[in-house]
Amino acid sequence: MLKTFAYYASVFYKDFSAYTAEKLEAVGLHYGLMFFVLYVGKHPGTTPSALTNALRVDWGHSQRSINRLVEEGLMSKEKSGRYYRLNLTDKGKQAYALCHQVFFMWDGLRLSALTPQEQDTLLALLQKIAASARKSE
């Protein structure tokens, strides 16, 4: 069977999802919630609307995810004027650091079969594909 880029993208997605679930379970996160924590960690004080747009998720899913993170004590949601502002709690900041580590750990595991030069080439090519995909949206 011919293997396509889409095939490999789905293989890596499934593998990374399973890996993150295993590593982040201890802090009450899974693959999907990880991106909410990462965004708020990089953009403290952001609004739910900005978060929803940046992650390209629907409003209902975003609100359920935010509420879960607030209930789990990872994020705060406070009214500021007309808007709610999102910030990570101390527990959320620890989860944020772990999320970053998960990316690097997974890369280290999966790219270990390649030489450093091959890794650089692969990442450069993937960056080119990702840039092209963003332009076509």
Topology summary:
Elements: H1 5-24, H2 31-42, H3 48-55, H4 59-71, E1 75-80, E2 83-88, H5 90-111, H6 116-135
Antiparallel strand pairs: 1-2
Helix pairs in contact: 1-5, 2-5, 3-4
Structure description:
This protein has 137 residues and is mostly helical. It has one domain: Orthogonal Bundle (Arc Repressor Mutant, subunit A), CATH 1.10.10.10. 69% of the residues lie in helices and 9% in strands. The chain is built from six helices and two strands. Strands 1-2 form a two-stranded antiparallel sheet. Helix 1 crosses helix 5, helix 2 crosses helix 5 and helix 3 packs across helix 4. The two termini are 30 Å apart. The model has no long low-confidence stretch (mean pLDDT 93).
CATH topology: Arc Repressor Mutant, subunit A
User: Number of DSSP strands?
Assistant: 2
Alpha-carbon distance between the two ends:
30 Å
Q: Structural class per helix/strand content?
A: mainly alpha
Under the CATH scheme, which architecture would be assigned? Orthogonal Bundle
Strand content: 5-15%
Task: Detail the poorly predicted runs.
Answer: none
User: How many individual helices?
Assistant: 6
What percent of residues adopt helix (DSSP H or I)? 55-70%
Largest sheet: 2 strands, antiparallel
Described by the principal axes of the CA atoms, the overall outline is globular
Radius of gyration: 17 Å
The CATH homologous superfamily is named: Winged helix-like DNA-binding domain superfamily/Winged helix DNA-binding domain
Order of helices and strands: HHHHEEHH
Order of neighbouring strands in the sheet with most strands: 1-2
Mean pLDDT: 93
CATH class: Mainly Alpha
